[in-house]
Each structure stands twice: as structure tokens, then as C-alpha cells.
Design a protein that fits this description.
Strand content: 15-25%
Largest sheet: 6 strands, antiparallel
Number of helices: 5
Distance between the termini: 102 Å
Strand order of the largest sheet: 3-8-4-5-6-7
Structural class: alpha+beta
Low-confidence stretches: 19-30, 182-212
Helix content: 10-25%
Shape: globular
């Protein structure tokens, strides 16, 4: 091979090698990006909880709590004690009995129910309003159902609850004491207590009964 042709081949080979080196990506300078706390695991932006959803989350933290006639704590609670305690967590003060709570807030038609609304039942163990729960969405509500059941989630479509449903009320949620975003370590305002946590064990016998305590439902 003649010298000029050899030089041309060598120059072409060197040029090709340079192009290959330039095209190889460098990973040494890449650093892992910190997680974006403003987004969920699926990449969608987080949305602060609505006020009614905060009520629901607090109520769900009582799920599994034992029923105790006259109870107002996680050691034992009845239906109106549950609604009163949950709403008090957010600065909404309710009277002690379901009968009195029925006269608070604004009446709501059942097709217009929103999470956080109170749902009332009549004739469960006495005439008139006798039971109350908190609507959580999708036709379900959480309530202190009675001895042996405690705080559970039930469906409004169950025949018993359809038959005894008396109405619903929407509380003035604009009066809730809602912390600003990130004030409690997150922008969703998570209430204390994990969903589905059970109450601490305690005996029901001999416990004092509060005035206006509620009897359980009688399905």
C-alpha cells in the first residue's frame, strides 16, 4: 500500500475512535436526585386533604376501638362519643347525644352526602334519633356499632341502616382548626393515630356512664 493511502486509512480510523469515545455516556458525574416530596409515588402532585377528609381520617383512627356505653375515649366509646371526640380534635364542638347533634349543622339529602357529614338513625333502641355515624364516602360510614362490634365501617345500603336512616347533617367545616401546610410534618394534615388502630385494652364493667350516653344499635 502506498504511504499516502496508509496515512488516509490511519486518519479515518483515528476519527472513528474519537467519535465512539464522545458518544459513550459518562455516569461518574451523575448524582441521585432527592425524592420530590410534593408528588406521590406515582408521580402525581400531592393534594392537601379537604376538611371533610380530615374528619374521616381522624374517625378511621378509632376503627377497632371497643364499644363502651358512655365512653368518649380510645379505651371505649359509644356512637355520639365518637362523633364528638373526632370533631373536637379539629375544634368543632358537638353536644353529647345523637339527639342533640341532629340539630347541629345543615340538613343534607343522602344523594348529596360528602365525607365528614354526620348520618343519623332513628328507632335503633328507642324512639326518635338514637344513633349517629360519620360518612366516609362511597356509601359507607364509620360508627360505634355496639358491644361485640366496636367502631366499624358499615354500608348505608344494608337493609337495617336503610330502614332506620333518619337524615344527615353537614357541619360548618370552615370553622375547623386546620394547620397550615407542613405545620405537622406533611401537607396532608394527618391526624394522630394510624388507620385501623385498636384501643388499649380496658374493662367495661364498673366504668362510669356519662350523661346522655348512647346505647348500641340493634341490627
Amino acid at each position: 500500500m502506498k504511504l499516502p493511502a496508509l496515512r488516509l486509512v490511519c486518519a479515518a480510523a483515528a476519527l472513528a475512535a474519537s467519535i465512539c469515545l464522545l458518544s459513550v455516556p459518562s455516569f461518574s458525574a451523575d448524582k441521585p436526585r432527592p425524592p420530590d416530596k410534593s408528588k406521590t409515588e406515582t408521580g402525581t402532585p400531592k393534594r392537601p386533604l379537604r376538611r371533610g377528609e380530615r374528619i374521616v381520617r381522624e374517625a378511621l383512627s378509632y376503627r377497632g376501638t371497643r364499644y363502651r356505653f358512655g365512653g368518649t375515649s380510645r379505651n371505649g366509646i359509644d356512637c355520639s362519643g365518637l362523633t364528638m371526640s373526632v370533631c373536637r380534635r379539629w375544634g368543632l364542638l358537638l353536644p353529647r347525644t345523637s339527639t342533640a347533634q341532629f340539630h347541629r349543622g345543615t340538613p343534607v339529602h343522602c344523594p348529596d352526602l360528602k365525607p365528614g357529614d354526620l348520618v343519623f338513625f332513628k328507632g335503633t333502641y328507642k324512639r326518635g334519633i338514637s344513633h349517629v355515624g360519620i360518612y366516609i364516602g362511597e356509601g359507607r360510614f364509620i360508627h360505634a356499632a355496639g358491644r361485640g362490634k366496636g367502631v366499624i365501617v358499615s354500608s348505608l345500603n344494608e337493609p337495617y341502616y336503610r330502614r332506620h336512616l333518619a337524615g344527615a347533617r353537614r357541619l360548618p367545616l370552615e370553622r375547623m382548626n386546620v394547620p397550615p401546610p407542613d405545620a405537622s410534618g406533611g401537607d396532608d394534615g394527618q391526624a394522630a393515630g394510624a388507620e385501623g388502630s385498636a384501643a388499649a385494652p380496658g374493662a367495661d364493667s364498673g366504668a362510669p356512664r356519662a350523661d346522655g350516653a348512647e346505647e348500641p344499635t340493634r341490627p
